[in-house]
Amino acid sequence: MSKKIVVTGGNGLVGSQFEGNDYIKYSSKLFDLRNTNHVDSMFRKLQYEPFRLDGVIHTAAKVGGVGGNMKYKGEFFYDNIMMNTNVIESARKHNVKNLVCFLSTCVFPDDVEYPLTEKKIHLGPPHKSNDAYAYAKRMGDIQIRAYREQYGLNYKSVIPTNIYGPNDNFDVENGHVLPSLIHKCFIARESGNDFEVWGSGKPLREFIFNKDVAELSRWVLDNYNEDEPIILSTSEEISIKDLVGIVVDEMNYKGKVKWLSDKPDGQFRKPSDNSKIKNLLPKYKFTPIEDGIRETVKWFEDNYPNIRK
Ligand code: NAP
Ligand code: GFB
Known about the structure:
Elements: E1 2-8, E2 23-25, H1 36-47, E3 51-58, H2 66-71, H3 73-93, E4 98-102, H4 131-151, E5 154-160, E6 162-164, H5 177-191, E7 195-198, E8 204-209, H6 210-223, E9 230-232, E10 237-239, H7 240-250, E11 257-260, H8 275-280, H9 289-303
Parallel strand pairs: 1-2, 1-3, 3-4, 4-5, 5-9, 6-8, 7-11
Antiparallel strand pairs: 8-10
Helix pairs in contact: 1-3, 3-4, 5-7
The structure holds NADP nicotinamide-adenine-dinucleotide phosphate (NAP) and guanosine-5'-diphosphate-beta-L-fucopyranose.
């Protein structure tokens, strides 16, 4: 009997990168993962398929950038805590032995000694801009540890930094910084208006390409079996100002960049320590940010206007 891995959120930025016969994916239109009955029917249905369910990569989440996180705190808390709770519990009930849960570097405390390591998740409150989402995600870590301890399951969590790539959500108000910048730069180039960027440009961020996240989290599913989450990061910081410079070059934008100082800067920085994944996979080559942005811009231009936005 062949083996399959369920990818929740299979249409998303990360989920879309799991390609081939190993994977089975369902849209939220078929199973709303906030609903316990839906999640149970998804796993029950899988038991009658002509393949064996070999693991779950749980990417589904309510996700957004600093704007979305500040505006929709209730939804970001409820949707994420319900999805994680349901998926992990139903996987257990249906005898799934291996599962990867997605956290995010925003789970870390705002005020903590840098760099961020896997041991520092619960040492203080997260940054105010995304506290609701961060607390919901932190509970994924607690649930995974509890299920490992009580049930002896090979469940574990990954902590990626800011992810970008083809198939992102290019929503200019609620999306993450890179897809928002690409979309806004495109609109400015086509309309002749200024390219409006939020904040001071001084904050620092770390970015990871969606294909790298998919490859690494599949590796984690197959090879990692620890209660401590694992950070997926290049550990290379870039300022928002320099990021804007790369987007402007790649989009061939010749107009004016206008900085909107009344828009949020968010957390100043969140530098992460990637030594754990580096020690386990010393030869892994992360996609350089310039190459990843070039591929994302090409994908955006090729697919516009049929993009998520
Ligand atoms: P995404 O592009 O927004 O995709 C999320 C997917 O979740 C969507 O395809 C959506 O499915 C699904 N989903 C949302 N609500 C659902 C519901 N109620 N029921 C079923 N499915 C639902 O997100 P992503 O950027 O790929 O994020 C993947 C994971 O990485 C998330 O857990 C996120 O927290 C984490 N993460 C993301 C970032 C980042 O910068 N993007 C950074 C760190 C961690 P449909 O399309 O079918 O509606
Ligand atoms: O990706 P982002 O929205 O989220 O990046 P975070 C925010 C940074 O980019 C801030 C600047 O410093 C903004 O001032 N920025 C500049 C912009 N222009 C724009 C723009 O047009 N749109 C956006 N969105 N930002 C998120 C968390 O934090 O990180 C999430 O809120 C998640 O929960 C994600 O964990 C990885 O990096 O601040």
